[in-house]
């Protein structure tokens, strides 16, 4: 398992403090409450470590009995991660007689970031190439390896340990995110990485460590502990909220396009403020003009077994029978048998039209206008 402890300027939060340096010290005032998502991710990282060590023939004790979130999907994810890394190792052995693999390796990048350290999920070195592999269990946001500061910090820390031994000239960074079917790879030269560290990282890290610099809001706010109370975020989103949404025809195309790029951040900020206010009210705080009440709830059985017995004794059938859903049916039959038996009876309807940024990987839909244009 990785070492305990958290750096003020951690690799995992680097996107935030590089873009918004003073947020690093601001977040120190908040208790780290954790979340179910974080706990599930930690469990899966422990399982990934175990399965990878198993695949490489390294003695390891199974963590499964201590994993609160363990399930079949997590097992599949960990097995896939172990397979992916072992395939990288097998490929490396084709051209390198002695590739090196390190699992849950602690790295220190304090040469550039004061008190900076972290733990890389997997490091593989072969033929002058440093491979950094990072497992992501989240299925909400797709993570890219391209210019990913967390991965770059891990790479810097790994260079501090291994560069003099293995004469590294290339850094390859991989995000393995199975629940998003995402394997993102980014490669850069060691010189380019060091140039970024010397010209950009060091200055921003120093500002962040001292609690200096300018506040800035963006996608990195979603993991900030101060996101609900941050004045900079509030002012940015309130400026957007001043648009007159009831009369969109009065906005020009550029304004509407600008709003589309920011509206998700606006709604996320509003939800964060509302959740923060609720939790504070539950803890006893009173907000002027607001009160805490009991919300609606649905009736439920105290014991389904007793209910079924009582209904059956009265001469009725308490059960309903329906076909399993697609996911449950595939688990029951197995993928190959599922495809063999049911492929002719499965259809995937066209998804509901959704506006997304041009960077989204999905192909653009044909609209009535584009269909019309294709006919001429």
Keywords:
single chain, 376 residues, alpha+beta, Lambda Exonuclease, Chain A, five-stranded mixed beta sheet, 11% strand, globular
- Which percent band covers the strand fraction? 5-15%
Low-confidence stretches: none
- Helix/sheet category: alpha+beta
Rg value: 26 Å
Question: Order of strands in the sheet with the most strands?
Answer: 1-2-3-4-5
Order of helices and strands: HHHHEEEHEEHHHHHHHH
Biggest β-sheet: count, sense, barrel?
5 strands, mixed
CATH class of the domain at 14-210: Alpha Beta
Q: What is the terminal separation in angstroms? A: 63 Å
- Please count the helical segments: 13
Describe the model.
The structure is a single chain. The chain has helices at residues 14-19, 23-26, 36-55, 72-93, 149-166, 190-210, 231-241, 253-260, 263-282, 304-313, 326-333, 335-342, 368-374, and strands spanning 100-108, 117-126, 129-135, 170-177, 182-189. Among the domains are: 14-210, Lambda Exonuclease, Chain A; 228-282. The chain has 13 helices and five strands. It has a five-stranded mixed β-sheet with strand order 1-2-3-4-5. Helix 3 packs across helix 4 and helix 7 crosses helix 9 (263-282).
Topology record:
Blueprint: H1 14-19, H2 23-26, H3 36-55, H4 72-93, E1 100-108, E2 117-126, E3 129-135, H5 149-166, E4 170-177, E5 182-189, H6 190-210, H7 231-241, H8 253-260, H9 263-282, H10 304-313, H11 326-333, H12 335-342, H13 368-374
Helix pairs in contact: 3-4, 7-9, 11-12
Pfam family, one: DUF2800
GO molecular function, one term: hydrolase activity
Organism: Ruminococcus bicirculans (ex Wegman et al. 2014)
């Amino acid at each position: 398992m990785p070492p305990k402890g958290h750096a003020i300027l951690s690799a995992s939060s680097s996107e935030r403090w590089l873009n918004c340096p003073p947020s690093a010290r601001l977040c120190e005032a908040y208790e780290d409450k954790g979340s179910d998502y974080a706990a599930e991710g930690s469990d899966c990282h422990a399982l990934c470590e175990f399965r990878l060590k198993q695949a490489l023939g390294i003695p390891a004790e199974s963590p499964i009995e201590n994993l609160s979130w363990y399930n079949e999907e997590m097992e599949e994810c960990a097995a896939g991660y172990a397979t992916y890394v072992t395939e990288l190792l097998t490929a490396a052995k084709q051209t390198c007689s002695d590739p090196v693999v390190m699992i849950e390796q602690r790295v220190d990048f304090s040469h550039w970031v004061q008190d900076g350290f972290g733990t890389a999920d997997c490091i593989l070195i072969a033929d002058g190439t440093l491979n950094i592999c990072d497992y992501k269990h989240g299925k909400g946001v797709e993570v890219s390896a391209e210019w990913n500061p967390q991965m770059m910090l891990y790479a810097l820390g790994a260079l501090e340990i291994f560069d003099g031994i293995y004469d590294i000239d290339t850094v390859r960074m991989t995000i393995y995110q199975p629940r998003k079917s995402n394997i993102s790879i980014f490669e850069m030269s060691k010189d380019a990485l060091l140039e970024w560290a010397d010209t950009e990282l060091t200055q921003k890290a120093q500002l962040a460590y001292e609690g200096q610099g300018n506040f800035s809001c963006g996608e990195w706010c979603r993991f900030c502990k101060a996101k609900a109370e941050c004045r900079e975020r509030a002012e940015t989103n309130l400026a957007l909220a001043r648009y007159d949404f009831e009369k969109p025809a009065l906005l020009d195309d550029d304004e509407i396009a600008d709003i589309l790029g920011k509206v998700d951040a606006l709604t996320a900020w509003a939800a964060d403020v509302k959740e923060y206010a609720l939790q504070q009210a539950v803890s006893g705080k009173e907000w002027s003009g607001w009160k805490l009440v009991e919300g609606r709830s649905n009736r439920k059985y105290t014991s389904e077994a007793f209910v079924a017995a009582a209904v059956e004794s009265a001469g009725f059938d308490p059960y309903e029978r329906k076909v399993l859903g697609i996911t449950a049916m595939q688990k029951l039959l197995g993928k190959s048998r599922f495809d063999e038996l049911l492929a002719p009876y499965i259809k995937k309807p066209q998804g509901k039209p959704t506006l997304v940024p041009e960077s989204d990987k999905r192909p653009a839909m044909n609209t009535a206008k584009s269909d019309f244009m294709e006919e001429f």
